[in-house]
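ZP: hey, is the NAP complex queued? I don't see it on the tracker
AM: it wasn't, my bad. submitting now with these inputs:
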Amino acid sequence: MRIIITGASSGLGEAMALHYAAPSQRLVLMARREDRLNDVAERCRAQGAEVETVIADVTDFGRMRRIGEELAQGDIGRIIFNAGVSVGHSGGVTPFEDFEKLFKTNFLSVHALLEPIIPKLIAQGSGELVFISSLASLLTMPTSIAYSSSKRALNAYAEGLHHQLSLHGIKVMTIMPGFIDSEMTRKNRFKMPFLLTTEAGVACIAGAIERKRIRYAFPFRFYLMIRIVSLFPQSLRDKIVNFTNFKKGT
Ligand SMILES: NC(=O)c1ccc[n+]([C@@H]2O[C@H](COP(=O)([O-])OP(=O)(O)OC[C@H]3O[C@@H](n4cnc5c(N)ncnc54)[C@H](OP(=O)(O)O)[C@@H]3O)[C@@H](O)[C@H]2O)c1
């Protein structure tokens, strides 16, 4: 069965492609940067996988629908919705354009691709949908409102799909990583708590997929801290968020 990975040209997507690349495994890798994606594809082929690349911008929703229709013509084992962007962390009023970019890339693109595929998955009676969300979806900092909002929307979408599709034998998994070393986080100018290497991050994600976890957040200690803070009274939560923000220097 094919594994489809969006955002496979760098970071977690690249590392997941290499993780799953093995003899007789068919992969479909998607991203915009052709040279980077071809390089990842070549390395996956060297590990014995059969690889198809799709150079596409996920915010081109018409194109995403057409790609979804084409993918629905063949078998689908797993789709990992990983393509995503952040706009960094900054104070002040979030520009509308940030919301537009993040919601289009991190959230709306997912359904543009998936809408034509869902009937196929239902007909198959199997398939796995993996959504790469973020721990940021569980606690919104004032410096990353648009990013957290887009990932929280993704969680809500995935939760609904889980209820809808699990009845048809389809597994829907939402993965919420903390800070992982990647092109995205290398832009951050503050100390990232519990930062993991890309390889460690992918090991956690692959383990969660293997165990068919419906929701999985990691690293555990960071997740636990966020959960505990969410149980505090609002006034105490405000103090913690403001203190953390102050330490970030924003
Ligand atoms: N790193 C972290 O700490 C962290 C934590 C939690 C969640 N995440 C999530 O993990 C996912 C992967 O991020 P990463 O850390 O691996 O960052 P990354 O190295 O910047 O990778 C992002 C990937 O998404 C692709 N992408 C971005 N915009 C796209 C677009 N418009 N069309 C098609 N592809 C697009 C990029 O490919 P092209 O530029 O070639 O198109 C790239 O392959 C994201 O969803 C991110 O939100 C990351």
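AM: back. Residues 145-165 form the longest helix (21 residues).
ZP: great, adding it to the tracker
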